[in-house]
Structures are given as C-alpha cells and as structure tokens.
Amino acid sequence: MGTDLFYFLIYPGFLFAAVIGAFLSWFDRKITAGVQFRKGPPLLQPFYDFFKLLLVKETILPARGAKGLFLAAPVIAVFGATMAGVFILLPLMNITTGFQGDVIVIFYLLTIPSLSYVMGALASGNPLAAVGGSREMKLIMSYELTFLLVLAGVIIKSEQSINLHQIILIQQSGTPFIGSLSGVLLFIVAIFCLQAKLALVPFDMPEAETEISDGIFIEYSGTPYAMIKLSKYMLLFILPAFIVAILMRGFSLEGINILWAVLKLVAVVLLLTLIRNTNPRVKIKQAIRFFFIWMNLLAVIAIVLAIFGL
Amino acid sequence: MGFKSYCFKKSLWLFHFGGASCNNCDIEILDCLTPKYDVERFGMVLVGSIRHADVLLVNGSINKKDKPRLLEIYEQAPKPVIVVAIGACGCTGGIFAEGYTFAGPVDKIIPVDAYIPGCPPKPEAILAGIVKLLGKN
User: Fold this and answer.
1) pTM of model > 0.80
2) pLDDT-derived band of residue B1, with 50, 70 and 90 as boundaries?
3) Which chain A residue has its CA at the smallest distance from B52's CA?
C-alpha cells in the first residue's frame, strides 16, 4: 500500500511526471522561440505560470453552467494523466513488470484527459467553448482508431505480447522496432497521433487561440486552469515516453544509458515542436480526412508489412 | 518579496483591448512580441481569453460604445489584474478628448495602474513602462 502510494504520488507518478513535463514544456517554448529568432522564456517559466495560476489568481465560475462538473473536469484530467503515467513509467523505468494487457489499459487511460476537457468545456455554458468541445470530440474520434492501429502493429511486431514490459524486453534483446520499415511507418503515424492528442498546432483547432479565444479552456481561470496546465505538462512527458517505450526500445537507466534515454525523449519532443512550428492550423474536416484516410492507410500498410516480418 | 508576488511578476499574461484606436498603438504593442523586443523573455505572452489575463492593455480613445464593453471585460477578468493605458488617447483622450462620442479617458472608467504616453509610444517605452510597473509593487 505504502509503496503503491509512493509510486502513484511521487516517483514515477504525479510529482516526477509533472516536473519533467514542465521542463519539457520549457524546452518546447524555447525551441519555438529559437525557430522564430527570439530569445525565449527562462528555465523556470512553467513553474512560475503554474504557481501564479494556483496561488495568486481568482477562480471565476460561469453563471450559467454546471459548476460541479466544470470544477471536477480538470481534476479528472490530472487523475487520468497520472494513472496513465504510472502504468507507462513503471515498466519503462524498470521498477515493476506491469501486468498482462496493460497496453490496452494505457490506451484507454490516455483518452481520459481529452474527454474531461470536453466535459469541462460543455459544462461551462460558453458558446465558443461548445464549438471547441465539439471539435475536440471529432478529433478524438479521428485519432483514436489510428492510435489503436499503431498499437496493433506494435503488438504484432512483438509476437502478440500485450504487456508493455514484454514489448520493451523484446526490443532490448533484438533491434528496436523503429529499425524496420514497418516500424518507421508506425513511428510517423504515432507522431501525428501525439500531435493531435497534445493539441499542438496542425491539430489545435479545439483551442484555436486567434479564432475562438482558447476554445475549450475559455472559461477557466485560477486553480482549475492550473490543473489543466498540469495535465498538459504531464501529457507532454508521458506520451513521448510511451512512443519511446513501444517503438524505440525504452529506457535503460544504468550509467551512460541515462544520457541516451534523455536524448530519445528530447528528440521526440523536438520533432513535435518542429512540426508545430512549421505548419498552419488545419480545419477539423481536413484533420478527420487526414487521419481516417491517410494515416489509417499508412498504419494498415505497416501492419501488413509487420505480418510479413519486414 | 513573497513567493506569490514573485511568481505573479515572472508570468504576466497580456490581454489586449483596443478602443476606437487608429491602430498605431496596436501595431506598437505587437512589436513588443516580435524577435527584436521579445517580451516572452520576461514570461509575458498574449492570451486569447480574458479569463487567463493578468494585464489588461487598453489603447485608443474610449467612446460611448466602448465604455460598457471595457467595463464588462474588466469585471470578467480574474483579480488581481493590472491595467495599463497605452498611448495619448488611452491616457488622456488625446485629440479626441473634445469629441462628442468621447466617454472619458480609461482612468475615469476603470482603475489604471500604469500610463504609457506617446502617439504612438515606442516599443522601448512600453517595455520601460512595464519594468517600472513591476518595480513598483
């Protein structure tokens, strides 16, 4: 019980994921600034933002709207991100071996933050939030199937193993999955799924800042918004960590290998940031078409290649 | 200086309210976000929703149509919020002060924490005004 709570709250759960995620968020903003020839924010900027929202700012509740659900949604988002983080990071950090079928559980837990954003947005009673919520819902429906196909490809490549620890072990004894043709295709598809899951720029229409004024988060202020920022920081760490686990051989934390682990994680985040900085926002229709036709096609090709052992 | 006020000063999020402006001040405000001046160095970003704002930048002359909107925006902002009046029109009314639609300079409508005069103020002047404001509290 005690160790479980420690896993959940401190390492590798809530606190660890939040701190690493905050630093990755700084990295994302710094690279963005570099791409635009700016200097960028200081290292502790995500922490200043978070504590300002948590401690200083007033919380305003919408006059017309479901106040309980509005306040519960950010907490559910943080909870979902933490649970997913624990199940991903325990096998990844080689602490415990997880359980049979945890890849499927992680897949469902990773949906909880996005779904709770939709719930909070629709509970706020704001028309712009409702527009954002409906877009986020359509986005979830389009990328979930693709993400499931990526997982299916990974499971086929790892000899029908649905245990994350087993998947990592198979890669560590042989080549990482990204070293094959089907692995490369799966990696491309997975990166675009992550971009949509994190609502980064080509797929940021739920919170389009210039168009519908932050959309799903428009009514949030103060402590609930701090919770949303927290869940965003955690997702920015655990989703790239998941990709590293299922396609890039995971982490091994001995001696110089820690450097490799950090480099793999930073490389995935760098890729996401560069895609975000070099693309315009697409319409929701284009995003659905992109995922349903092109990304699903690519994933199916990858699965067929994986069955033939390429 | 307490931890709370330190965090607040390090992460000011800006919301831009343009009154009946000639758009010169708006352009100068946007200049502050460009590579040459880059206020993100100080943790300032432009946000889309008033609910996330810490600083309300008001420029342009406030006419009778703008006044209720400005009041509404100010009341919707989560406190504490800093109000900065930018440009001659925001500070005093400028050349529009005698006009029949003019509804008073910004500080007659909502409490103002800092004035940045100029027509338009240079980005350097806006940065200097914000630095002075941060030194004050």
Assistant:
1) yes
2) low
3) A221
Polymer length of chain B: 137
Alpha helix stretches (DSSP H) within chain B: 3-10, 24-31, 66-76, 87-91, 106-109, 123-136
Of A130, A110, A120, nearest to A73 (Cα)?
A120
Q: ipTM score of the complex?
A: 0.86
Apex CA A228: angle with CA A41 and CA B79, to 5°?
75
- Residues of chain A contacting residue B17, judged by C-beta atoms under 8 Å apart: none
Domain count, chain A: 1
Which tens digits make up the pLDDT trace of B37-93? 888 888 888 888 888 888 898 888 888 888 899 899 898 888 888 898 888 888 888
Token code pair at residue B131: 């630095």
Q: For an interface test with B, which of A44, A51, A52, A58 has the most B Cβ atoms less than 10 Å from its Cβ?
A: A52
pLDDT in tens, A114-167: 999 999 888 888 888 888 889 899 999 899 999 999 999 989 888 888 888 888
* Residue-level pLDDT at A274: 92
Within 10 angstroms of residue A184's Cβ, the number of other Cβ atoms is: 15
CB B40 to CB A41 under 8 A?
A: yes
Residues of B in contact with A214 (CB under 8 A): 47-49, 52
Give CA A14 to chain center in angstroms.
Answer: 15
Domain ranges for chain B, please list them.
11-136
**Chain A residues bordering chain B (beta-carbon distance below 8 Å):** 29, 33, 36-42, 44-45, 47-49, 51-52, 55-60, 209-210, 213-214, 217-222, 225
Residues on chain A touching B82 (C-beta within 8 angstroms) = none
What is the structure's pLDDT at A300?
A: 92
For residue B54, the chain A residues in CB contact (below 8 A) are 52, 57
- CA atoms A178, A181, A182, A184: torsion sign: positive
Among A22-31, A234-243, A296-305, B118-127, the minimum mean pLDDT is found in B118-127
B93 token code pair: 């009314």
CB atoms near residue A127 (< 10 Å): 10
CATH number, span B11-136: 3.40.50.12280
Q: Do B51 and A49 touch (CB under 8 A)?
A: no
Among the listed residues B87, B83, B88, B93, the one whose alpha carbon sits nearest the alpha carbon of residue B63: B93
Cβ contacts (< 8 Å) between B79 and chain A: which residues?
57-58
The 10s digit of each residue's pLDDT in A73-109 is: 999 999 999 999 888 888 888 777 778 888 899 999 9
Boundaries of domain holding A19: 2-307
